[in-house]
Write a structure and sequence with these properties.
Rossmann fold, alpha/beta, 225 residues, 5 strands
């Protein structure tokens, strides 16, 4: 199903940003449950490993959704997600070194472009502002501002046919997301969260910390543990 164009005959199409992690995978299954025919965008932006990209592709295939891997060249090399010479930090306070400048702005802009091109009614992103690393472009105020920009900066918005920017997980804890994903049948065994990649999760980075915390609080066994 990779690299196939979505048709525009379905009146309830959605573009879903899929990274291969818990949040984006749960968002995909939630969008499907809501009746959307989903087209997944998976971004290869030079991250330090491709483990999450492979996970995203397998999840899209398991969900019987079309997907496309989009290659981007992020020039910034100061992020631990882009530069192997920068150490991935352990879980801590403040915005971590894994921050990639304006990443969600770029991803959402591309998704909005694609949604308008194929006539999709919504863009779904699994952003979360509860159990998260403090990235500025994961906060509710950012999405409120982006929705306003989309409404006045696109043809569909000006013509009052605006594309909805959906953030269904924005105010949920990681445990709540995992419980929701479990009810929806999300294949947690295919998801990947660790920033370091490798054969096994490092159990030390921010993403591993919140994943472990979420499964523990949800009282559900993590198949990757």
């Amino acid at each position: 199903m990779g690299n196939r164009n979505a048709g525009n005959g379905n009146k309830k199409q959605a573009v879903v940003l899929l990274s291969g992690g818990l949040d984006s995978s749960t968002t995909l299954y939630l969008a499907k449950k809501s009746g959307f025919s989903c087209f997944c965008l998976i971004f290869d932006y030079g991250q330090r490993h491709h483990r999450e990209i492979e996970s995203a592709k397998r999840i899209a295939e398991t969900a019987h959704c079309h997907y496309r891997v989009i290659k981007l060249n992020f020039l910034h090399k100061g992020s631990a997600l882009l530069d192997r010479n920068v150490e991935v930090p352990k879980h801590g306070s403040g915005i971590p070194q894994t921050y990639v400048p304006a990443r969600n702005i770029i991803f959402l802009s591309f998704a909005l472009f694609y949604a308008e091109t194929i006539g999709a009614k919504a863009v779904f992103i699994g952003a979360n502002a509860i159990d998260y690393s403090g990235y500025p472009d994961c906060r509710p105020q950012f999405y409120r501002a982006f929705r306003k920009a989309a409404a006045c900066g696109t043809k569909s918005g000006v013509e009052k046919r605006g594309i909805k920017i959906e953030t269904p997980l924005i105010d949920k804890s990681k445990a709540e997301i995992i419980k929701l994903g479990d009810r929806l049948g999300v294949p947690f065994s295919l998801t990947w969260s660790c920033y370091r990649g490798g054969a096994h999760p490092c159990k030390r980075c921010d993403s591993c910390y919140y994943r472990r915390k979420g499964f523990k609080e949800a009282k559900i066994k993590d198949p990757l543990k």
